[in-house]
Amino acid sequence: MAWACGNCGAQASRGSVTFDHKGRTVRERCQHCAPEEFDSAFRNPTDNRIYPGPQAMPHLYKRDKNDVYQAKDELLADTAAAWEKGPTERAVQAKRDTRRTEPLTPEEIEKTRHWAEQVLKPALQKGGMGAAVAALNPE
Ligand SMILES: [Zn+2]
Fold it and tell me: Rounded CA gap, 39 and 89, in Å?
């Protein structure tokens, strides 16, 4: 669905709108008038990849003396606060609507076991977690 950018007027599929505290639009940008704001892979939902935290939010991580990424206090505090808040009403409702209550059938167990043996295990042995994630998310 295209959207008309308020800054340049282009029809864009991706944009950024900044509002003030009263909900008035302060600024609009799109991939045409501010491409530098949309060149991050993480912000491109069409690439179907899973990004690790430091790659997705580099400003929220720092490297320690062993060159290992560590979450900054700000990220830890935000995560703890989100954890304290618990699930959203929408998440609770989605769980209610989609929760499975019957046990797996023997066929389902066998099918899953077969998939784990034939697809997941070789992927893990060949390429570790990255390959396993790719196996879980085919095209
Ligand atoms: Zn624009």
Answer: 33
Domain limits at 130?
Answer: 103-139
**List of E strands, 31-68:** 61-63
Contact between 38 and 15 under an 8 Å Cβ cutoff? The reply is no
Kindly state the percentage of the chain with pLDDT values over 90.
Answer: 42
Q: What pTM value is reported for the model?
A: 0.38
Which is higher by pLDDT, 133 or 20? 20
Q: How many A from CA of 56 to the centre of ligand 1?
A: 24
Calculate how far, in angstroms, residue 45's C-alpha sits from the geometric centre of ligand 1.
19
Report the pLDDT value the prediction gives residue 120, as an integer from 0 to 100: 87
Q: Verify that 7 and 22 share a domain, yes or no.
A: yes
**Radius of gyration, alpha carbons of the chain:** 21
Q: Which residues, including other chains, have CB under 8 Å from residue 19's CB and lie 6 or more apart?
A: 25, 26
Same domain, 73 and 107: no
